[in-house]
Each structure stands twice: as structure tokens, then as C-alpha cells.
């Protein structure tokens, strides 16, 4: 499998790396919860990853990363299927959708049950934003190069 991935065009390799980085960013700390524990006099802090506050937004970002990784895998296997606008357009749109969702999540922080708690932003969500931007750039580069798609045997007479 490693040989097939290495034989892929450089643009598809970068696309796969950006999608893998986006999926990995979900385990990084996205939020910091500051609160006063019951009976304590000092603040305590807790880091929360995207999986700790898993909602539609995080599920959609994970689905985008998985879909792009599947596309790269399918191209490495030589699977014959065509996408509207080509691979580059689909990857660019997927990265843009992930970016939009992540920006939404910057402003729509998760709720907490504790009355003294506040939720702040951590560095992990910026890693996810960077990975989504890399996915957009990889899709644009893939679209610019426009490697030929595999032959579609069903469409040929």
C-alpha cells in the first residue's frame, strides 16, 4: 500500500496529508474550561478536545477528513469514478466547508453545567483551521494540475 501511495501525484499526497492533519486535530485541545471546584477557593482548568464536545460540527469535520482520505485511497487503488468538477473542486469545497464549520465553532463555544465555569479557546482549534486551509490549498493545487481521472469503463461503449 505504501508503494501505491508513493506513486500518487504529489498533489494527491499533499491532499491526503492535509486530510489526515484535519482528522488528527480533533484530538488536540480545542477548549479550556476554567472553574472553581466544589468546596475549593482556587480556579481549576481542564482541556477539552473536539471529541469531548462532539456535536454536528465535529462530526461534519471528521466526515470531511474521512471522505477526502477515501478519495486519496481510491485514486491510489485506481478506482474508476468521476466527480463533478473533478477531484480538485471537490477537495476545495470540502476544505471550505470544514473551514466554515470551524469558524462557526470559534464563536459557538460549548455549554457547561457548572455556574462558575468559563470556556476559552485553546491552540488545537487553530491547528484544525490550519489543516482546513491546507486542504483548500491542496484542492486548488490539484485543480490547477488537473491530473487525468481514471478511465470509466461503464461510460465507454
Structural class of the helix and strand makeup? Answer: mainly alpha
Distance between the termini: 32 Å
In the residues, how many domains can be counted? 1
- Give the helix tally: 5
**Sequence stretches where pLDDT stays below 50 over 5 or more residues:** none
Strand order of the largest sheet: 2-1-3
The main β sheet shows up as:
3 strands, antiparallel
Give me the Rg, rounded. 19 Å
Series of secondary-structure elements, N-terminal to C-terminal: HHEEHHEH
Tell me roughly what share of residues is in helical segments. 40-55%
Q: Could you tell me the number of beta strands?
A: 3
Label the overall shape. Answer: elongated
Strand content: 5-15%
Overall pLDDT: 86
Any overview of this molecule?
With 157 residues, the protein is mainly alpha-helical. It has five helices and three strands; from the N terminus they run ααββααβα. It has one domain. 55% of the residues lie in helices and 11% in strands. Strands 2-1-3 form a three-stranded antiparallel β-sheet. α2 runs antiparallel to α3 and α3 runs antiparallel to α4. The mean pLDDT is 86.
Question: Could you give the topology of this structure?
Answer:
Layout: H1 2-7, H2 10-24, E1 29-35, E2 44-49, H3 56-77, H4 87-107, E3 118-121, H5 124-145
Antiparallel strand pairs: 1-2, 1-3
Amino acid at each position: 500500500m505504501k508503494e501505491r501511495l508513493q506513486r500518487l501525484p504529489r498533489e494527491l499526497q499533499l491532499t491526503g496529508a492535509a486530510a489526515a492533519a484535519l482528522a488528527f486535530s480533533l484530538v488536540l485541545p480545542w477548549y479550556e474550561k476554567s472553574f472553581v471546584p466544589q468546596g475549593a477557593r482556587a480556579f481549576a482548568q481542564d482541556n477539552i478536545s473536539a471529541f469531548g464536545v462532539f456535536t454536528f460540527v465535529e462530526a461534519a469535520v471528521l466526515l470531511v477528513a474521512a471522505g477526502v482520505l477515501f478519495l486519496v485511497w481510491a485514486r491510489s487503488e485506481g478506482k474508476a469514478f468521476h466527480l463533478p468538477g473533478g477531484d480538485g473542486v471537490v477537495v476545495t469545497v470540502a476544505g471550505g466547508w470544514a473551514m466554515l464549520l470551524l469558524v462557526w465553532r470559534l464563536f459557538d463555544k460549548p455549554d457547561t453545567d457548572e455556574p462558575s465555569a468559563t470556556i476559552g479557546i485553546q491552540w488545537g482549534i487553530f491547528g484544525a483551521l490550519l489543516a482546513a486551509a491546507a486542504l483548500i490549498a491542496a484542492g486548488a493545487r490539484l485543480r490547477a494540475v488537473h491530473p487525468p481521472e481514471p478511465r470509466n469503463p461503464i461510460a465507454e461503449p
